[in-house]
Design goal:
Elements: E1 7-15, E2 20-29, E3 32-38, E4 49-52, E5 57-60, E6 62-67, E7 69-70, E8 73-74, H1 80-91, E9 95-100, H2 107-122, E10 135-137, H3 160-168, E11 172-176, H4 184-193, E12 197-200, H5 207-215, E13 218-221, H6 231-238, H7 246-252, E14 257-261, H8 269-279, E15 284-287, E16 299-302, E17 311-314, E18 318-320, E19 326-329, H9 333-344, H10 348-354, H11 357-362, E20 380-383, E21 389-394, E22 397-398
Parallel strand pairs: 1-4, 1-5, 6-9, 10-11, 11-12, 12-13, 13-14, 14-15
Antiparallel strand pairs: 1-2, 2-3, 5-20, 7-8, 16-17, 17-18, 18-19, 20-21, 21-22
Helix pairs in contact: 1-2, 3-4, 8-9
Bound molecules: zinc ion (ZN) (2 copies).
Length: about 400
């Protein structure tokens, strides 16, 4: 069989991690990037298949390490169909590598979710949407008072007898636990030993609990400012003196990374700007934290499992609990990128880095994805000048956008 002709992207500005490369040429062969350089300098054969970026941008595909669902499906539905439905929904928004994220739930529900993700990862084709490099094991080890929109009934303390089985599957790449729970340090040590990004989330942890967890390998905090401790929450927990919380711990430790839900609904523009200023593009990730209402009309949905997940409402802009508190986002990574670009005033390479290379590095998959670099998978987006997603290529194959018929 004749090998497929190379795929060449041209007539666009490539967004590299450290700079913009105008009039770039990107050559891909057999699903991988083989050359990136200025037009006129990079050669390619005449039979190449050309993708014309029409004066827009060529961006690495987005990497989302914290996401619950889309197009009506939540990963905790626990079926391969739900995983594929959500992955297709996010591919439309430029996400090419996705880390399906667990919520609180029973061991059987968590097992079903991990199994469904493993099957989709193994059998992946471009029609399935974003690729699954791994899973974010998020719930159930949350602090009771910081459980947020997750089902309280499915929350519990970490127990090695339970989580050992999950880690053994080899699909978990990001692993969350509230640092103040009994057994948290052992959990973080196990996560780090399995090569995971160990993260503290849905937590009211103190500085000391964070410091102990840091020594056990914890290096990240989920959705900064959301469902986490603060100086006032420490005062409520311990009384005077004022104490450091998760926020100060993350801001002071260079090695700690975090993430923001940059949908314009969870955090005001000045907080997005502040987070970028304090942590920089190498330690701040953009995440969607999107629930199943992404791509769906406003209305009532379940957060987590279709069977027993708590009710939330989507107004088309954001999810809300019955109390009115926020319950995760309903928009894709392209919206996060545009909102962050506007709010942070960060250079475009930094904004894109936070949605691609930084999450890939933190989750340990930057050798394969996260930037337009020779040797990496050909996950390439064509964006227009306003950063709208025009075309999506995953492993050198175009993902044809199939909109959900409602
Ligand atoms: Zn959360
Ligand atoms: Zn979440």
């Amino acid at each position: 069989m004749k090998p497929a002709p190379p795929l060449v992207f041209r007539n666009g500005t490539a967004i590299l991690p450290d700079r913009l490369l105008p009039d770039a040429v990107i050559v891909c062969r057999e699903g991988k990037i083989v050359a990136v350089g200025p037009g006129g300098k990079v050669r390619f054969p005449r039979e190449a298949e050309i993708v014309d970026a029409r004066g827009g941008y060529l961006s690495p595909g987005f990497v989302d390490i914290h996401v619950h669902g889309g197009d009506g499906a939540d990963y905790m539905d626990g079926t391969t169909e739900a995983v594929r439905t959500a992955n297709r929904a996010h591919a439309r928004h430029g996400t090419t590598s996705i880390f399906p994220t667990t919520t609180t739930g029973s061991p059987a529900q968590l097992d079903a979710m991990l199994e469904a993700c493993a099957v989709v990862r193994r059998e992946w084709t471009v029609d399935d949407g974003a690729r699954v490099p791994g899973v974010h094991f998020y719930g159930p080890y949350f602090a009771e008072e910081k459980v947020g929109c997750h089902a309280k009934s499915g929350r519990r303390d970490p127990a090695a007898a339970e989580y050992r089985g999950y880690f053994k599957r080899g699909i978990i790449k990001v692993a969350t636990c509230a640092a103040e729970l009994p057994g948290a340090e052992a959990f973080f040590r196990t996560a780090a030993r399995h090569g995971c990004l160990a993260t503290c989330g849905h937590s009211n942890a103190s500085w000391d609990e964070m410091a102990r967890s840091y020594r056990a390998g914890m290096r990240h905090v989920d959705h900064f400012w959301c469902a986490m401790s603060s100086v006032p929450s420490m005062r409520a927990r311990f009384g005077p003196p004022m104490r450091g919380s998760m926020a100060e711990f993350v801001l002071m430790h260079r090695e700690m990374s975090t993430e923001v839900i940059a949908d314009g609904q969870h955090l005001a523009p000045e907080l997005l700007r502040f987070a970028f200023f304090m942590k920089g593009a190498e330690r701040l990730c953009l995440v969607t934290d999107a629930n199943r209402a992404l791509g769906m009309p406003p209305g009532d949905y379940r957060f987590g499992s279709m069977v027993d997940g708590p009710r939330i409402h989507s107004d088309g802009k954001v999810g809300r609990m019955p109390t009115g508190d926020l319950a995760s986002s309903v928009v894709g990574m392209d919206t996060m990128v545009r909102t962050m670009a506007r709010a942070s005033e960060a250079p475009l390479p930094d904004v894109i880095r936070m949605a691609s290379l930084t999450p890939a590095e933190r989750a340990g998959v930057a050798g394969q994805v996260g930037s337009l670099a020779k040797g990496k998978l050909a996950d390439v987006l064509v964006l227009d000048r306003k950063l709208a997603v025009k075309r999506v290529f995953i492993g050198g194959c175009e993902h044809r956008v199939r909109r959900l018929v409602l």
